[in-house]
Design a protein that fits this description.
Number of helices: 1
Mean pLDDT: 79
Shape: rod-shaped
Protein name: Hydrophobic protein
Low-confidence stretches: none
Order of helices and strands: H
Strand content: under 5%
Transmembrane segments: 26-45
Keywords: Membrane, Transmembrane, Transmembrane helix
Distance between the termini: 56 Å
Largest sheet: none
């Protein structure tokens, strides 16, 4: 009975970890897309010079 519970617990943990990793991949892709859009869409500063679209 105990080995069965351990196997089920391990399967549950691996499923949870796999789901979390998949979600993190989608978040990373979304952040990359936003960064690329900001990089391409950046314009010129009103004073005439170039500026960064982020404030880091």
């Amino acid at each position: 009975m105990v080995p069965l519970l351990l196997v089920l617990l391990l399967a549950l943990l691996l499923f949870g970890a796999g789901f979390a990793v998949k979600v993190l991949w989608w978040v990373a892709i979304l952040v990359l897309a936003v960064w690329l859009i900001g990089f391409v869409a950046r314009g010129t500063h009103p004073s005439g010079g170039r500026h960064r679209w982020y404030r880091w």
